Structures are given as C-alpha cells and as structure tokens.
Amino acid sequence: MATSQKHPDCSFCGKGEGEVERLIAGPGVFICNECIELCGTLLGIKQEQMALETHQVEEVGLLAPHEIKALLDEHVIGQEQAKRVLAVAVHNHYKRHYSQHEHDEVEIDKSNVLLMGPTGSGKTLLAKTLARILNVPYAITDATTVTEAGYVGEDVENILLQLVQAAEYDLDRAQRGIIYIDEIDKIGRRTENASLTRDVSGEGVQQALLKIIEGTIARIPPKGGRKHPQQEYLEIDTSNILFICGGAFVGIDDVIRKRVDQKTIGFKHQDTNASAKPIGNVEPEDLLRFGLIPEFIGRLPVLTMLTELDEHELMHILTEPKNAIIKQYKKLLAIDGVELSFETEALRMLAQQAIKRNTGARGLRAILEQLMLDIMYEVPQKSEMKTCRITREMVETGNVDLPEISPANELKSPSQKRSA
After folding, report:
1. Which of 32, 54, 166, 272 has the CA that lies 20 to 30 A from 99?
2. pTM for this predicted structure
C-alpha cells in the first residue's frame, strides 16, 4: 500500500509548494518567494525611513537665521542683537559643514563665537538652547578648571570627552556638536607683558585651546583623566564643532575707556555720555590688553555683546519663556489642586531685587525659591486650599505667613489679614 508524502508549506504564509513559484528550505522551516519579496520591500521601506530621519536631523542644522532667532525667542528674553548675531553665525557654520567638499577652491573658516556680558544675562542659556534647536550634542565646561598638560587640573582634551559622552560615543554626531566654554575671561594673562614664570591656568590654557578650536584631529582618553602611553584613544575631528566662549570680562570697560580717551586727547567731546557704556565698542586690541593672546582672539571671529537685563525684561523672564520658573511653580501647585497667581507689582519687586543683587536672571530663581519655600511645604497638607496669590508685600518682606484657610479658600497677605 503506497503512503502519501506530505508536501511542505511556507512556514510564514502557509501556502503549499504548488501555490508558489519557489519554496526554499531551511533548517526545519520553509519560506516562499512571495514572503522573500515582502521582506525585501519592508526592509527597503525601513531603510528609506532611516535615511529620511537622518536627512531631517541634518536639515535641522540648515535653519535660516530668522528661523533660528524665532526659536531662540521662545526661550530667551531680550538680547535681540546677540540672538541675531548668533543666528547668522550658527547658520553659516552648519552651511559650511554640509556644503564643504574636498576640491572646493574657497575654504570657509569656522564661525566660533565669543559672548561677552554680565552674570545672569543669558550666555549659557543661549548656547544650550541653540544645541536643542539644532538637535546636536553639546557640552558645557568651565575654563578655570582646565590647565596645561602635566599640571594638576583637567586636560583640554577632556572638554571634547564631555561632548563625546553627550553624543553617547557616536563620534559622527559629536563632531557636529557645540561646546560652550564659560569663564573664558578668567584665563587671560594678568599683565600685558609675557611672564617669565609658567601661567598654567592662563596663557598656557589659551595655547592649548587654540588647536581644538581651530580644527584638528584630537586624541582623547575614552574614560577621561590624564594620558599615558599604554592607553587607547578616541580620535575626534574638531573642524566642524562649534565653539562658543563666554565671559563677563569684568573691567574691560575701563580698558575701552582708556583707549577712547587716548584717541580723543586734544579734541572736544561733543557727547559727554559717549563713553558711559563703552562695552558695545569692544575691539580686538581691548581683548589683547585684557589678557587674551592674539592667536586666541583670531580663533573667535564672531563677537557679540549681551547687555544687562532691565526690570521689564526680568519680569518677562519670570512668565514668558516655555520653561519660565513661575510656570513651573504653577504646574507644581496645580498638581495639588491649587491655582497660583502673582500680582504684577509682585513680579516687579522680584525683578528689582534681582537687579539690586546684581545677579541678573540667575538670581530670580534663588529669590523665588526662598519665597515659595513655606508655600511648597504647607500646601500639600492643606487640602482645602484652592488658590494662592502672591502680593508685592510678600516679596518685599520675604514673609508669606500662610494664614488659616478662609471660607473663600483664598490665601491672603498679612495686610489683608489685619484689615479683616
């Protein structure tokens, strides 16, 4: 009696050998030509999606200057001129990166940036916001922690390591990133004359920074620390990394006044206030006299000034940006079912206190944190509280003095309690 032999079926679609053109055997499985074609199509779609996503990421860096500034406006209040200068510099930098070719006759230089402005004026915020807008990794470091190789402190190459770590060790992404070096004014020479002794945290650091800012192949230890011969290194090309250096440059206004006065000896001043705020007229020779070496100044061709924030701008910083601190507190209290509000005069007083402390926008958070401490501590245990209004008197005295909850479920100021 003849036994019937079972024909194999496709292990994926279940079609028999007679229903398809070809059936390929594997170890215990079969796949038909139709399933193979389907897999190829799906893989092709996935590859196209990945290529599109990569293209979109790269295109983010090619935003027009007005688009970059518009996005900066959502997070940074004031500093209009600085935002325009940065938008153009960043646009040109990434346009240079995406359009450069080996055989180009004209080589475009890097548009590294030097930000000058008082504490709390937004230098670090601008750099961080730019990196988020462009969807590139960024690293923030302090120039005062860096020393020359061979001395106690941090190697210059460790600045690059921070960027590589921010890019999760994707060197291609890291090489398109942004590095912000703060307190750059603190590494200036203390005198205009070259010192006979080693200045390991001043001119020496400037010399060490020159190459990586200009563009070089740097070798960095993958785990940081000092270099030693037996160690393996990561190689990173800094040619397309955008360097933004920032500093308060306290005292440079005196340098500028001195230069302006020297040029006007024997001539009558038409405007007695012409040098009241000379900081906007910074020239390379002023930076040279301040202590930066000529080669370092030349590596930072784009210079922009950040002005001290006024009362109006500080009030807007409290409420307008996407991550405004008052919006954050409102959201925190809303989770507890409490509606937080501020009188306009209370906002004005907060701004005035920040100006008095000479801390700019950075001081706003410290003042508000201190003011809101008792409220944030008490509110979770006052389930009947529904509204909380901050008055000028509360800000001025620094005493919120949470009252007993009234029938209207409102938080009253001390003066309102006395009149009641």
Report:
1. 166
2. 0.71
Q: Please give the average pLDDT of every successive group of 10 residues along the chain, which has 420 residues.
A: 61 82 81 83 59 42 85 90 91 81 69 90 90 89 72 70 91 91 82 46 79 88 64 85 91 84 54 43 87 90 89 92 90 90 93 89 88 87 85 86 48 46
Q: Are 275 and 257 in contact (CB under 8 A)?
A: yes
3-class secondary structure, 16: strand
* E strand map for 211-307: 217-220, 234-237, 242-247, 302-305
Residue 138 bridge partners (DSSP): 178
What order of strands is seen across the sheet that includes strand 242-247?
138-142, 178-182, 242-247, 113-116, 302-305
Count of alpha carbons within 13 angstroms of residue 377, beta-carbon side: 9
Tell me the residue type at 66.
Answer: H
Distance CA 320, CA 313 (A): 10
Residue 361 CB neighbours (<10 A): 23
Q: Tokens 């001129």 — which residue?
A: 81
